[in-house]
Amino acid sequence: MTSFKIERPDFPLWAPKSVIAEWEEQAEEVAYWQRKFPTLEPDTDEADMLARLLTYEDMKSVWERLPKYKIKPTLFVSMVQCSQSFIDIKPYNLTPKEHAIWLQDVKDTALKLKSLIQFSPYDRILEEKYLKKRQKLVMANIVEHSLQILKPEVNVEEHEKTRPAYESWPDFLPQPLSEVLSELASLESEDEINVVGSKRRKSVRLDKPSHPNAKRSYFIRNLTQELRDFTGQPLRDIVTVTTATVFDTPSLTERQIIRIAP
Fold it and tell me: In whole angstroms, what is the distance from residue 141 CA to residue 168 CA?
């Protein structure tokens, strides 16, 4: 039985080497999982998308323009990948009006749960999980510190002057669950919850999330927003060419892009 392998495209000279490396890594990953599960259909969507970005002639102008806006090729690829992440489940597939109703329901439910569990044992569940894990790590650290004395290179008198590392560990005891729920209910929206250090940005909402072209519309709006956040400009010509490439729709026009992402 021959091993599965994605055929390497004939990459043009203008194709960024860093993105070619990403394609190679993706192709290797597909081949690895195909060897592990040979009866399953190989998932080549990501590799195929990268290949189109690297070989479609219209993309040449995109790659050549990115340095003007200080956008590295790998950063642009990550923008494209994030823009493909339309999730067709609640709350991501809600219209703006439906989302507002869902958001209020979340807040009301959080406050109701807070009133039910406040001062009960349930209120301490986060603290208990944290303390159990910390206690386990503390005991392991005490044992590790004690065993150091058995090493021939360790001076016994000097070791007795040292203290286990856990004594200098910071304490991150969580809030009671009721306080977390109260904080959740006070948020304007889930957009206020970000990974530490990441820039807050408004989520993309579609007026017609069940439309056959919803995924493409989400892609256009999200990529436009990503580029606008990074450069201060929507760069619709770049969005047009990239969208046409990713979705293999060469007839897409910039006027259509403007209608979808004003």
Answer: 12
